[in-house]
Amino acid sequence: MAEKILIVDDDLETLRLVGLILERGGYQIAAASNGQQALTLAHSEHPNLIILDVMMPDMDGYQVMKNIRQDSAINTIPVLMFTAKAGIEDKITGYETGVDDYLTKPIHPAELVAHVKAVLSRAASKAREVESDCTVMGFMAARGGLGVSTLVLNLAIAMYNKTQKFTAAVETLPGYGSWAWELGHADSEGLNKILKTSPENITRNSVKNELILTSYGIHLLMSSPKLKDQEIINNTSQYQALLRELVGMSDYLLLDIGSPCNINWRRILGSCTEAVIIVDPDPTTMRRTKSLLQEIETLGFGKSRKVTPIAVNRARSDIQLTLPQMEEALGAPVALLMPPAPELAYQSATRSIPLSLLQPESLLSQQFVRLADLLLTKK
Fold it and tell me: pLDDT digit string (tens) for 55-81?
């Protein structure tokens, strides 16, 4: 996903030229011609960078900058001040208001792009430092029906039992929620309520209000199972705001992404420090999963970020791939094999109790504990 830059200038020709330069550099562009519009777009668009002019009517760039830094919803957005005011005092004033860089017009396009890249790089490094205390794990499979939601729920319980730290598990796909039904919760609207909220109103407290603290220690953000709610999956700005707040409050954040039918899967997985990919011992699934692993390499998984394949065997059968055959088909090691437990799964569904709590000593429950150990050790 290309980084988004908000350009703020009352001169329309400057907006056009700077926008063209940055679009050619591969960036997404949003534009504002005055200070108030800039503040509105900063909330709704969640840009990765703001390029801000100083000399504008009604509200100059310095005042816009002060408003940005005083607003907790947008005060972490880096700002590059780009203006014709070249005096030393002007630059000092700009830096005192909190800008990250200060450039004067005119400037060579290559120099502008170089400064943009530098500011974005510094901001990304700073964000990683701020978020480094939260381990964000994304869980998905190449197709549906492989037990991703069940694995996330029970793994979250195991991780909380190991660490006793704030552990949140999130269903990210509106219209496909299952935890509320499985656990007997009446309220499954948490995710939907947040995704229907204006991004600027998504705060730490508003997200906390939708989290359900379970009797077994983990926090859940549940999605509605109603198919009519699928349309809000397009609310990408709300997803960004939600993930930002969840990362800020959690020690361990487990995101049930599902399958690539989730159109936001790239954006959500891109916010994760680690990916856990679920497979089953089926040749077709293996081919699809190998393609998925190759796809997520473009997001850095398998390189700078860890990826952990997990095999889930949901049925007892002699006609299936062995573990070595699965690893050969994937071209990657499988970290753990989850054994079939259809009777336990049925009891869990009928009694609305997570299966790892229903029979903690079962082989499957112990594998959740081992997986928690594996992922916690990797951190």
Answer: 998 899 999 999 998 887 788 899 999
